[in-house]
Amino acid sequence: LPSPGIKTEDSLSHSPGQNSFLSYASNFSSSPSGQALYSYPTHGNSIPPGIFQGANGISSSAAFSPSQQDFSAYPSFTQGQYSPYYSSHYNTPYLTASNVSPSSISTATSYLQQEHPSVITNHSPESLAGEYHPPASPPTPEKEQDSAQQRRGSDGKLRGRKRASDPTPPLDSEIERVFLWDLDETLIIFHSLLTGTFATRFSKDSAKAVSLGLWMEEMIFNLADTRLFFNDLEECDQVHIDDVASDDNGQDLSTYNFAADGFQSPSSGATLCLGTGVHGGVDWMRKLAFRYRRVKEVYNTYKNNIGGKCVLGSPKREEWHQLRRDMEVMTDMWLTNALKALTLINSRPNCVNVLVTTTQLIPALSKVLLYGLGAAFPIENIYSATKTGKDSCFERVVQRFGRRAVYVVVGDGAEEESAAKKKNMPFWRVSCRADLDALSHALELEYL
């Protein structure tokens, strides 16, 4: 089977000392000389309305105008504070291999290692039976004390963090900000472990990194095959879990025998799944829909507890615990920092995380479960761009949540950046763990 979520080396070759942040801003000034990378000023007075203010940050459904791209209206903090992340053009979004100096990489590596202590590896597997959760962020005193009027945007809706009393999540039409995430090498480290790229860039043990990558690859496909019907669905990949739901008649599947329903018979083999669509009879399409419905049930049941005994079984469960610990040590707690940013977004009442990945849908779901990201991404918010490309997936997400919402793309590759540029969406590049730290910081201060 092919490795899921394969990325090109181009997406891994740029320097960790990136130089752009929301790169659609065409007139942002360069940073003052000597500016430190993360010298954030104290969050001061309320920021006046702009593209990153208020509930929606835009006043109409029209596309971003040049005035909305002008950040000169912010008086309470200097524009140079995030200057390493801004660029005025898209001409050179990534540094070439010739520009990546060993000194810059070693500096970034040193920063990563001194930020967090190493993961304690002598815990018993039972101590990590649940998912990894980022450390709780202390509340910002001045934010907690702000009046409701101060926290309201131009349209009067609250921007504050979600309250525990919120009875139900907001409808798609009520979402004001959508964060579109890439998966591999942005939220998780996987492919670069297999190729040795991660070990080379961050001065890690190459043999150990490749070994961990192969170990995770085996677990991803084992879960996909045994619990998520990947053997049946590999040639019938879908962009979204509900794409064939219209063929489902709602039949009770509690006693349904998937192994003996004839789905893989010679008359209904992989040749039925061709091109961009799925071709087959009504009965076969119903069986296909049954499988995707069961995948959805499994995901929703175990998204918060994939380490349960009934899912992985022994000794796979113990192997998974050890693998998660080893990978956090190898990647300097990359996943923990990614989860912190995801949790901050989920804590807001009208913001949502959406995953758009080039991995096929079933292996992508397996990755999300094994890396402990299920709580951050409802299965309805996961899209596979394998067949259609990210540009098409982004348009589909925009149609779902509406054009009045603000969309922020977070990724490491050229494909998602190009798609973001076409749709005039802000783009936050992740090339090292420090970029995730900076993203969490910006979210905590509500700059995003």
Automatic annotation (TrEMBL):
It is found in: Nucleus. Its cofactor is Mg(2+). InterPro entries: EYA, EYA_dom, EYA_dom_metazoan, EYA_dom_sf. Binds 1 Mg(2+) ion per subunit. It holds the Pfam family Hydrolase. It catalyses: O-phospho-L-tyrosyl-[protein] + H2O = L-tyrosyl-[protein] + phosphate. Residues 121-170 are annotated as: Disordered. It comes from the Eukaryota. The keyword Metal-binding applies. It is an enzyme of class 3 (hydrolase). Belongs to the HAD-like hydrolase superfamily. EYA family. PANTHER family: EYES ABSENT, EYES ABSENT HOMOLOG 2. This is Eyes absent homolog. It comes from Polyodon spathula (North American paddlefish). The lineage of its organism: Eukaryota, Metazoa, Chordata, Craniata, Vertebrata. The gene is Eya2_0.
